[in-house]
Design goal:
heterodimer, A: alpha+beta, Alpha-Beta Plaits, 5-stranded mixed beta sheet, elongated, B: mainly alpha, Formate dehydrogenase/DMSO reductase fold, binds iron/sulfur cluster
């Protein structure tokens, strides 16, 4: 009797185990099949990886085959260069030509400003001033760190770009950027129809795409042609100096005067925006010292509002 | 098997089946879901511009909802694993309810995050081009793992009950019997089978603790890895995890009340059980309160430049009414009320739990939105809707959709399987 019972038990146990094993084995197999299929899809294209040497912590591997020629060279950057930007706040009269030149070049909506001229004030008793604010092209860019799909990246020449064919629109980079330098295409871009057949140029970020990021590109397309950025050339007031850190020269976009970068920074007491965050901006500001143009009354109000905002 | 056990089995199996009430409720949910999905179709067509989100507040109620979902899904780990492994017996009948809630919220959380994506069509890029350095990739990985473990943790201990369904529920439709037959994997209640399940469950209970901690810690890091005031915090991990237990416990209380009433389980989901889980809610709320004090008091003391504006908006500014309602009505007041035994009776406890869970949702709102509303640099040269975030109707509908989905999952599971683990209840009855 006892034997029969145990026998039965064993039999049922075996069957139970068998079924459990079947289920487990089945799911493992299915998972494995999917994984290997994906792997194969990747493999069959058979193209090796290129390695991008980005900034220290931001070494990225990119699948070469998925990229067009424009994208490949856009991701690599221009060898030997380290682009640098100096913005002279003493000169800015809020002409906003930089903003419109930029919007035109990148087919942006009026509310999208890669370059945004802000009116700023440090404290109650200091004067207000205008501050053009592009992407800071940080050397330790938080936006690049958080991007889950390598859609935004740092190039060897220092430029931080966005690949809108890769971007999934999670907007983590917007959350991470402390300078509010990034914008999103919340709806169909302005010239979606007109640009539809254009080949995507990552250095110009055109055509813009709905549901993806856009941001200041340091006019990487112009740099490739050896020209100054759109905004820099458009400024009538000599606010912008642009150049190559490796050569230690910068050129003024208005006067085309050239200067030693190190000298310009040193003589004018240059500073960076929020250096304490450790983002290492590639944009330097010269303080708004000895300004000749006054700030408009309504802008002063905006500026003081901002001061109070933090003092409350 | 004695008469008492026989009664337990009958009582617990009785709610199973898809009656009229079930059909009406499900049709209602389906209709509501379809309406909300229509809103999503509009969003897909037009773009995220149909929401109140803009470049400054670019994460809104979708993300708040996501955090809430992940938070609530942690409760399975607390009830089954923490209380289970430490042999706290009173909670064991609640394990299945907690696991059902966990599974439903965790599984749907993934969909919530997709609704926030600008390019949902590129979702698979996360797997093709995933960069291991990004917390989003960590989140995707651990949430998936958690869903798998939660499913197993719901399923394995339920096998004996499914076998009971297979043996006893002969009147149900054929597909349902087939389902029980397949899912019960030839369970004969032999010692060996019991041992296998016991061991399997134990392993899962241990496994689920780090994974559960990980999902919510990583979710908190989506914020904490940034520089923004209000997010730039080193205690965000534990702060989120402890907050998760509060909303999860409240969810279990609500589910207990509803199941008890609708499925006539007064005898099994006892008044005493409400009293005990009421105390648990006090405990987890106290721990959460402690983290709240840390999170807000220390920055208030220093009033660093950027923090000051943020805290001012919360304490006295635009978000003050919401902030204080949430902190007082959703946290402090419940703690005080629940110290009194009469408040831990089913109905009062239900009302408190509803306040707590609504508070928990809006707490996530307060974590996500005010911070984005106060960037370091001023918001200028943009239209007014860029300056102030106001969720749109479409956005609200898309936020409600996952909640409906969770209700549907919970309803179907609770109508297909016994919501209380029969063996646990039996042993309780025997005591
Ligand atoms: S300013 Fe913002 S967008 Fe530009 S590199 Fe730095 S973090 Fe990225
Ligand atoms: S929105 Fe695009 S660029 Fe920004 S983090 Fe997400 S995928 Fe990367």
């Amino acid at each position: 009797m006892g034997n029969i019972r145990t026998g039965l038990k064993n039999a049922s146990r075996r069957k139970f185990l068998q079924q459990l094993a079947l289920w487990g084995g089945g799911s493992v197999l299915a998972g494995g099949a999917i994984a290997s299929a994906l792997h194969y899809e990747h493999k069959k294209k058979g193209v090796p990886h290129i390695k991008e040497i980005a900034e220290h912590t931001h070494q990225l591997k990119v699948n070469k085959e998925a990229l067009s020629e424009l994208q490949r060279r856009g991701r690599e950057g221009i060898p030997g260069k380290r682009w640098i930007w100096v913005i002279d706040l003493a000169k800015c009269k809020n002409a906003q030509r930089c903003m419109s030149a930029c919007q035109q070049a990148h087919h942006l909506r009026p509310e999208q400003s890669h370059m945004n001229v802000l009116v700023m004030q440090a404290s109650e008793h200091t004067p207000a001033y205008y501050m053009p604010k592009p992407c800071q092209h940080c050397d330790n860019p938080p936006c690049v760190s958080v991007c889950p799909v390598d859609a935004t990246f740092k190039r060897q020449d220092g430029v931080v770009l966005i690949d809108n064919q890769r971007c999934i629109g999670c907007r983590f980079c917007i959350a991470a950027c402390p300078y509010n330098a990034r914008m999103f295409n919340w709806i169909e871009p302005l010239y979606a129809k007109e640009d539809a057949n254009m080949e995507y140029n990552v250095e110009l970020n055109l055509p813009q795409r709905k549901g993806t990021i856009t941001k200041c590109l340091m006019s990487a397309d112009r740099l490739r042609e050896g020209k100054l950025p759109y905004c820099v050339s458009a400024c009538p007031n000599g606010v912008y100096w642009f150049g190559d850190e490796n050569e230690d020269v910068v050129t003024n976009g208005t006067t085309h005067e050239t200067m030693r970068l190190s000298e310009l920074l040193e003589k004018n007491g240059a500073y960076q925006l929020m250096p304490e965050l450790g983002t290492k901006p590639r944009v330097y500001y010269l303080p708004p010292k000895g300004r000749s143009v006054p700030v408009k009354e309504e802008d002063k109000e905006k500026a003081i509002e901002y001061v109070h905002h933090f003092e409350s | 098997m004695n008469v008492a056990n026989e009664k337990v089995i009958n009582d617990l199996l009785r709610p199973i089946g898809y009656g009229k009430g079930f059909l009406i409720w499900m049709s209602f949910l389906t209709a509501a879901l379809v309406a909300c999905l229509y809103a999503y179709v509009i969003q897909l067509k037009v773009g995220l511009g149909v929401t109140g989100l803009r470049d400054y507040v670019s994460w809104g109620i979708y993300i708040a909802n996501f955090v809430f979902f992940v938070a609530t899904s942690l409760i399975g780990m607390l009830i089954s694993a923490v209380l289970g492994l430490t042999q706290i017996k009173w909670a064991s009948p609640l394990a299945r309810i907690a696991e059902i809630i966990s599974l439903a919220f965790a599984a749907v959380a993934g969909l919530v995050i997709i609704s926030d994506m600008g390019r949902p069509d590129r979702f698979l890029y996360l797997f093709f081009y995933g960069r291991i350095q990004s917390p989003i990739i960590w989140d995707v990985t651990v949430v998936t793992t958690y869903v798998v473990i939660s499913t197993l943790l719901l399923y394995l201990p339920m096998i004996p009950d499914i076998a009971l369904c297979r043996d006893r529920l002969t009147h149900v439709p054929k597909w349902q019997r087939k389902l029980y037959e397949i899912l019960s994997v030839n369970w004969q209640n032999s010692e060996n089978q019991q041992r296998i399940i016991r061991q399997g469950v134990k392993t899962l209970l241990i496994l689920i603790i780090p994974v559960a901690l990980a999902i919510h810690t990583v979710t908190s890091w989506l914020f904490a890895v940034t520089h923004r005031p209000g997010w730039d915090s080193t205690i965000f991990g534990p702060y989120f995890v402890t907050g998760a237990f509060v909303s999860g416990t409240a969810a279990v209380i609500i589910a207990m009340y509803v199941f008890r009433k609708i499925y006539h389980l007064e005898q099994y989901i006892t008044v005493d059980l409400f009293d005990k889980i009421g105390k648990l809610l006090v405990l987890v709320s106290l721990v959460y309160l402690y983290f709240n004090i840390n999170e807000y008091l220390v920055p208030v003391y220093k009033l660093k430049h950027a923090d000051a504006a943020h805290l001012h908006e919360l304490f006295q500014g635009r978000f003050a009414v919401l902030y204080w309602s949430v902190q007082l009505g959703g946290l402090l007041l419940p703690i005080i009320l629940l110290l009194f035994k009469p408040m831990r009776k089913p109905l009062p406890l239900l009302i408190v739990a509803i306040f707590v869970i609504i508070g928990a949702w809006f707490k996530r709102y307060l974590i996500v939105i005010p911070t984005m509303q106060h960037p370091f640099l001023p918001i200028q040269n943009v239209p007014i809707e860029y300056q102030i975030y106001k969720p749109t109707l479409i956005e609200i509908a898309i936020t409600i959709a996952p909640i409906i989905l969770v209700l549907m999952i919970i309803t179907v599971l609770s109508k297909t399987f016994p919501v209380l683990p029969i063996q646990e209840v039996e042993s309780h009855e025997d005591n």
